[in-house]
Amino acid sequence: MKKIFLASLTAFLLLTFVAADGAPARGPVILATGRRDPRIYAIDFNAALRPQNNNTPRAIVSRSKVFPNRLDGTPVGDPANIVLSEDTRTAYVVNHHGAANNAEFLQHGGRGSISVMDVETMLRPEFDNTDRAVERNYDSGYFGAVGLLVLPTLLLVSHSENWLSEDGSNVIVLVDRKTGGRRGQIEMAPGHPPHACPTYPVPFASPTKPPAVPFEAPDPMFGCWPNPEFLAVGRGSDGRSYLFSGNAGTNDVAVMDLQRALSGFPVVEVAPRIPVQAGPFGIAASPDGKLIAVTARERAEVDREGNTISIIDVDRARTGAPDAEVARVRVGTDDPNGQTRPFTVAWTPDRRQIVVANFSANNVSIVDVSLALAHDSRAEVARIPVTRPQDPDGGVRPSRPKGTAVTADGRYAVVSGGPRLPPNAPPSGTVWVIDLRTRAVVATVTGVGNDPYGLTIVETR
Q1: Count of CB atoms within 10 A of residue 316's CB?
Q2: From edge to edge, which strands make up the β-sheet containing 283-285?
Q3: Which pLDDT band holds residue 392 (cuts at 50, 70, 90)?
């Protein structure tokens, strides 16, 4: 009996060591964007939950470059968002500024790109720190690419910037999934701020001079351009699908007819925009498509961050109802004037809760949807601090949570974050796993990129 026990223990320890040391994961895998570190990090979900791997990078299985190195050997890319294909075999990665060297490109308005990557190759340790998973790279069609939706034959890519500036975009590009070719674009209406805006035709007509726009925020001249960030698709009771964008430049949410856009019409907004507290970044549809959750991240015209999320009713929004924003919930702070900079949102599969990453508050909120819709002040039912382990020099940097995702069973939330460090610094990003039953952090994975943004979960393979 003793021999059997020792043999079983040895086998268990060996299995634990292999999984933690980068063996191919057999269960769920987290794919996290490294952002300033131009790689995608594959993290073994089950290995991350093992206590011996907590606060270490041992659950990382592999890191995949999003571009081949530059000819001088420099890694390039700026991965900010990642979305899986329907069969989870392909990952589409948005490079915010394309094939940029983050140590050299120190401004806004780089040309965006999409890296098309094979998921199975991304999970193989023998291809760690290589570009073997990259199948092709597409031009995204404009500047400052960020939002991405995967449709059956097309990618919808939103662009939040203009050439070498943070302001000046009204473009969502339709890209062919097979060829990478540009199939069309959505052109959004300009904003209507209190100050004058440059004359600019929508849809675009040539010749038109490029408008003068602010180089970066904050600037009082913001408000002329929507600068769309993340995207979501809602379902109306009329049987149609509606595209929603969170607009960082105009502090509102746009409602667009998706079918018309897919038929080639460039101007497809169907209702007045919905004002929110501050310029949105993250936006996501509920599992049934009837509600849209959106963050109020920051205002671009003034130096002010938001502290709320809004919930929008799709049917009310598409018909232009003034009460389309059916709930607004303060997150991350009890102070009405507190600045928490909510970054992204993720719904639980049962539509009952919304997970919110609060960048400036260094915490994660859980919002009860029923309480929010009832305008109950207790709708934020949990506020969970996320922390980073101590650095070698004894300091503890802020966590700065950004990306959010929820497992298919609704049990766990996964959150990415970490402060932005110089481009050549050691990987400093962090991924936290939160148990939504106990509402506590149950795993922390370190060494995940530099200033990581978006992430996703590969559930089954």
Answers
A1: 17
A2: 283-285, 291-295, 308-313, 325-330
A3: confident
Q: How far apart are the C-alpha atoms of 430 and 35, rounded to whole Å?
A: 12
* Mean model confidence pLDDT for the chain: 93
Task: Enter the pTM of the model.
Answer: 0.93
Instruction: Report which of residues 361 and 23 the model is more confident about.
Output: 361
Return the H-helix or E-strand segment holding 372. Answer: helix 369-373
pLDDT for 20 equals 44
Of 53, 55, 50, 60, which Cα lies nearest the Cα of 389?
A: 55
Q: Which long-range contacts (CB under 8 A, 24 or more apart) does 405-408 make?
A: 405/30, 405/346, 405/455, 405/456, 405/457, 406/346, 406/347, 406/348, 406/349, 406/355, 406/436, 407/28, 407/45, 407/457, 407/459, 408/349, 408/457, 408/459
The structural domains of the chain, with segments of one domain joined by +, span 25-193+203-458
| CB-based contacts of 163, cutoff 8 Å, min separation 6 | 109, 111, 143, 210
How far is it, in rounded angstroms, from Cα 457 to Cα 147? 17
Counted residue by residue, the chain has a size of 461
Q: How far apart are CA 126 and CA 106, in angstroms?
A: 33
**What confidence tier does 15 reach under pLDDT thresholds 50, 70, 90?**
very low
CATH class for the domain made up of 25-193+203-458: mainly beta
